[in-house]
Amino acid sequence: MRVYIPSTLRLLSAACNAGELGPAPLAAYAVTPALREWYTEGDEEELEYAAMAQAARASVGLLAADSGTARRRVVIAAEVSAVPPADGSVRLGDARLELHVVIPWRMVASVHLDTAAAVPVVRKAADSWEAAQNGDDDAVFALDSCEGEDLMWYATQEIPDLLAAEGPRGRSANGSAHGSD
């Protein structure tokens, strides 16, 4: 089963260096029955995109909690065994899962990352995260604005070079981003 794990550049670097994603439990997003029921017309690719979008939104929450990391959403795609929903309180359209295992790096399929151009939008969303969780309309709008920013795709063999280019705090020296759609 393909899962999408919200992350940050700092967490991605730690996972890459450790050779695993952890510790358990890990929040993840996937094509769940609740998501499939919500998107009755969607094909598998559209459903996976919706799950990844939910993971990208959760990544903003991680950014809000870590002011020292670059303001770029990171989503790690990995292959795992099928897992149950987080807690039985799943809402219609929810792709959320909870993984109770550490994921070996070899199970990572790809990484999805904001471009440097998305940083201002993502920064505003991260700064507004808490207010958005409390229903503030302007903050929710800032968070929703991230959805207009495409995440770039990186193969696993590109990740060490990507992290080296970003530097120890996940900030690119020249602000550029590479990768392909």
UniProtKB/TrEMBL annotation:
Keywords: Dioxygenase, Oxidoreductase, Signal. It comes from the Bacteria. The keyword Signal applies. GO terms for molecular function: dioxygenase activity. Residues 1-18 form the signal peptide. This is NAD(P)H-dependent flavin oxidoreductase YrpB (Nitropropane dioxygenase family).
